[in-house]
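seq as requested:
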Amino acid sequence: MAPPSGQLHISPTRLRADSLGKWWRGVDQLHGAGAFLACLFLARCSGGTALDRNSRQSYGGIPMKGRIKILATTLCAIRADLARPHEFAHERVGFLTAGVATSADSRLMLLGREYSPVDEDDYIPDPTVGVKIGSGAMRKALQSAYRPPAALLHIHTHGGSGRPDFSGVDRRSATEFIPSFFNPIPRMPHGILVLSDDSAKGLIWLTADRAPIPITDIISVGAPYAKYGAVI
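struct tokens:
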């Protein structure tokens, strides 16, 4: 039976801290947290202030709206990567790091930095789901956001045109794996983005134990310029 459309599944996996090397051991000593990583399963889908460099600041008190700015060239590259066919996976997923700032209207502002495709070796064959990636992909993504500290966004696409939306399973699964991002990177917000071919939508968690806030604006900077409004 074909996997249901538009669904993100999560299967938690605990890894020993020593399996992550010196990088995680340092985090574990600082925060006293075990290494909680996850395998992700994605079912087949049809004017602010300067960047905050103080990693000790928590964003738990930011008002309940967020915004993302990302270079148009980066967004085009992300869509191109996610559209590439894979040997056995029906879809691809990736991760975007982002700096954090506060806009003039006190909204949380995420400034897209670097996109990391999931390596070919980190995709795992599984005929019951559209795509499955192993815990190694999660570990690499967390390392990319660890130093300098950055927000980490999981990205997938539903394809097609128009404004995409998260399925109920997308949301439930994200509430399981996004909190694990706060173990190594506790002072930054983290979230998820879903793309279509011409729009996007996102959710941001400010802390591991709070409900996410909507990304009300996703702004593609450069040519072509685009601004996507979120639907709650």
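The first strand starts at residue 8 and ends at 15.
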